[in-house]
Structures are given as C-alpha cells and as structure tokens.
Amino acid sequence: MPTVHDYYCPPDLYDVIYSNITDDIPFWVEQARAARGPVLELACGTGRVLVPCLEAGVRIEGLDISESMVGSVREKLGARGLQAEVAAGDMRDFTRPHRYALIFIAFNSFLHNLTTGDQLATLKCCREHLEPDGRLMFNIFHPSSHILIEHDGVPRVLKTVPIRTDARVTDAGRADLVEQHIWIQRTVELLDPAGRVTAKHEMAFELRYIYKPEMELLLTLAGFKRFHAEPRSGYTTGFAVKPKAEEGDQLVWSAWKE
C-alpha cells in the first residue's frame, strides 16, 4: 500500500482523471443517510463521495493515507462552508475515539491492500470500530479473465475526460495471475482544444484483486458472521443492481458486527 509520502497521484490530477466517475455517488449517499448514526469513510481521497454525503446532511468523518488528499478535502469543505473531521490514517491500523454505525470503503480502494495480512488487518480494524450491529461496506471489482489477459504491458487508451481541458488516460497493465496482483503504469496527457499535448504525467500503482469465495473466507477470519455481496454494474453504467454477478462486475460487500 502507498505511504503518505508516495501516493501515486496528486489531488488535482486525481480529480481530473476521475471526474467522470459519478454513478456510484447517489448509492453511497443513500447508504450513509440510512445508517442513522455516525459514518466513517476510509480512503476518502479528495472527497468525491464524502463531500456529497456532507451536503446531504450525513454525520461523516474521513480518513485517507495521503496528507495531500486530506488537505484537498479540507480545502473543498472550507470553500463550501462544510465541516467534518478528516484526517490522515491507514485503513490497516487506525484508532478512533468512538464507534460508527457505518464504515465504508468506496471505489475499489480496499484493493490497495496487497497482502492477506493487510486485508485481514483492515477488516479487523473496521470491525473493532463498528457499533453493535454496525455495518462495514466496500465495493471491489470481480476479476475478469478477459481483462486480465489484456494486462500484458501494452499501453491502451483507457478514456479521454473532458474537464477544463481534455485529459487522455493511457494504461499499461501487467497481471500476475498467481499472486493476483495488477500493476498499472498510467500516462495522463492534458490536451488543448486542437488536441496538442500541453502536459504529461507518469504514475504507477498496484492492486491485489480478490475472488468472491476468497473474500467470504477473509470476512469470516476477521470475525464477521453475517455478510453478503450485491452485484452491480460499473461506475459509468449506472452502478445498477444486477440479478447475478458476472466477471468484471462490481461487488458491493456488506458485513455486520454482531
């Protein structure tokens, strides 16, 4: 997992790259409002979900491993006249003075846990910070064999995002099918109206993907007795509920502290 000093992407560029990812926000706002108690978002990033939750009246706090991301959230809250406790913290090992009705980790961020030890540490730490009957929620993609095969190191244009200026995102991914790791080498080019590159940024990050039966075992080992996974479509296709999980779907996991 990145440290607070080497997060792979600066906040302003992060906001550009993911400006088109909005379909899941209403879902998380709804879950946070329904919690009827204090909420904690782990890996809150630059506030993509946390800020809309606050605007909806949710009593929410945020933690992120990156000081720069935390600073970005605080700036946004100040500009909007909002208040929330947002701090730097590691999802694997954090200590908060109170307990929560809901803890959630959005946008595949749980996959930054790169070892079984990291995964279990995060799940156990979350469980410790839940109120009785409190719920942990997180969404992660279910591995797709087709996509994994395409992680062969060949650069592919992922998307072009129109915001202030166009941003062209190109990924070259490599997958280790034994260790279940994905390495992404990302290039972000900012383009002027004529399509000329005005700035170029290189970055890299790593994820460890998780299969459904594996996650069920991890949750059990972390002390959760009741949990389930709800399949949903992707971030730009409505994030809608699906009747059955397929490769590449988002799985929204819920686990309750009993």
Helix content: 25-40%
Counting DSSP H or I runs of 4 or more residues, the number of helices is 7
Q: What is the approximate shape?
A: globular
Let me know the largest β-sheet. 7 strands, mixed
Task: Give the arrangement of secondary structure elements.
Layout: H1 11-17, H2 25-34, E1 39-42, H3 50-55, E2 60-64, H4 67-80, E3 86-88, E4 100-105, H5 116-128, E5 130-141, H6 145-150, E6 156-163, E7 165-176, E8 181-191, E9 197-208, H7 212-221, E10 226-232, E11 250-256
Parallel strand pairs: 1-2, 1-4, 2-3, 4-5
Antiparallel strand pairs: 5-11, 6-7, 7-8, 8-9, 10-11
Provide tags for this entry.
single chain; 258 residues; alpha/beta; Rossmann fold; N-terminal domain of TfIIb; 2 domains; seven-stranded mixed β-sheet; four-stranded antiparallel β-sheet
Structure description:
- The protein is an alpha/beta fold.
- The chain folds into two domains: 11-143 and 210-256, Rossmann fold, CATH 3.40.50; 145-208, S-adenosyl-L-methionine-dependent methyltransferases (N-terminal domain of TfIIb, Single Sheet).
- Helices cover 26% and strands 34% of the residues.
- It has seven helices and eleven strands.
- The longest helix is centred in the N-terminal third of the chain and has 14 residues, at 67-80.
- The chain is globular.
Task: Summarize the model shown.
The protein is α/β, with parallel strands linked by helices and about 260 residues long. About 25% of the residues lie in helices and about 35% in strands. The protein has helices at about 10-15, 25-35, 50-55, 65-80, 115-130, 145-150, 210-220, and strands at about 40, 60-65, 85-90, 100-105, 130-140, 155-165, 165-175, 180-190, 195-210, 225-230, 250-255.
